[in-house]
Amino acid sequence: MIVREIVRDVESPLSESADAAVASITLDRQGSATNAIFEVRDPASERVIATPPDHSVDDGLAALARADRAGRAWARETARRRSDVLHHAYDLLIEQKDRLARIITREMGKPLAEAYGEVQYASDYVRWYAEEALRPAGNFRENPVGGSTILTSRAPIGTALLITPWNFPMAMATRKIAPAIAVGCGAVVKPAELTPLTTLAVAEIFVRAGVPEDLIQIVTTTRAADLSSALMADPRIRKVSFTGSTGVGSILLGQAAQHVIKTSMELGGNAPLLVFDDADLERAVEGAVVAKLRNGGQSCVAANRILVQSGIADAFVEGFTERMSRVVLGNGLGEGVTLGPVIDDRAVRKFSSLVDDAVAHGAELRLGGSAPDGAGHFFEATVLDRVPEASEIALTEIFGPIAAISRFDTEAEALERANSTPFGLASYVFTENIDRAFDVADRLDAGMVGINQGIVSNVAAPFGGVKASGLGREGSGEGLEEYQEIRFYNLARRAR
Hints:
Blueprint: H1 13-23, E1 40-41, E2 48-50, H2 57-74, H3 79-95, H4 97-108, H5 112-132, E3 138-142, E4 148-156, E5 159-163, H6 171-183, E6 187-190, H7 197-209, E7 216-218, H8 224-232, E8 237-243, H9 246-258, E9 262-266, E10 271-275, H10 281-293, E11 303-309, H11 310-324, H12 345-360, E12 364-367, E13 382-385, E14 402-408, H13 411-418, E15 423-424, E16 426-430, H14 434-443, E17 448-451, E18 466-467, E19 470-471, H15 476-481, E20 484-492
Parallel strand pairs: 5-6, 5-8, 6-7, 8-9, 10-11, 10-16, 11-14, 13-14, 16-17
Antiparallel strand pairs: 1-2, 3-4, 4-20, 9-19, 12-13, 15-18
């Protein structure tokens, strides 16, 4: 095994600028009836970096009233006006990329280079929906039995509850907020309590761009279940978009049924990555590393089960392990760091348990496998080979920098194992045979398939899964439809 010394803390102008970026966020405690606060900690140092208001249920309901009122006025604005505001917001987000990237790294931990990538990705959603706002869908057709013309149009669905996760605090916020603004909806946004600062900074920029101040209400709280339950019981909520665990998503779906609320749910994943004997080895190794380690593996579309065909398996494992050994672990603000901390100590304990269990079942530990001593929530880039199907790591979503590799012999076996999960968010296929690529992709139970690449996300593509991985789509034109409802007009025609 290769063990690298990690950079735990960073005392440099870069870290000072990150602290200044965090300090520049407005933490408005006047919006809280109790003046309660909670702590946000840097996962690389465990230091408290901010104390946002811990909003109560009453605070959330008051925020809903403001968003609903503002949304009704915003819905009457022209599509051009909404588009112009979003274009301005995009320009301001890019202008503020240094500040936003440092906030992301400070509260979430990812390396600064990845944080810059998230800023661009998140901003691209704003630009995309600025353009989509000008292309409202509608239809015109003749009644097939005559006598009338059928007209359809789309209207804003109403006030939306947007619940975002901690792993992509900016991208998941803009992917939900931008389409809501584009079609004319108000929104109550509940960011993850671990990473609320980025969302607060983004909301401030939207207001500077011309979004009415009350239209986007950011509610920060440690009582997420109580808050969401109260909001979902309020008939003013007409849409909920949630990114998070399947367990919480199931609860929200049950609550949504009470008022027949439109939902989009991006839930858990257990992504298989299939490498066939005819794959380009170098491309497969690089793609698998990206699919595994993007965001430190803390992604719902991360490669969770790497299945490699027997003929190429030994060479793949050697190449993949060597590539993983180059990872530099440390504070995301540190120079040259490519793997930051994981989000909290619970994650560290989970990873240690998964590795121990896999080895106990017979897996071979090829790299890493432990948490370095000291402050911060760190776990080494880890490679496990010949992982048995009975081990816990083969059955659970890892959500961290551990690669679990196993072998297969036939295409049929690979497909059976890939689909043997209740989840179906993303899958990956590496093969140089174009017929096999599309045939396997068509037979995978997944909402998204990456073919010969380790990234599936794109603002122009519909993001979402099947089975227990959720319903509805975000991004693309389909993402706009999630915030609209169809209206139909039957126009009588005179007989000729």
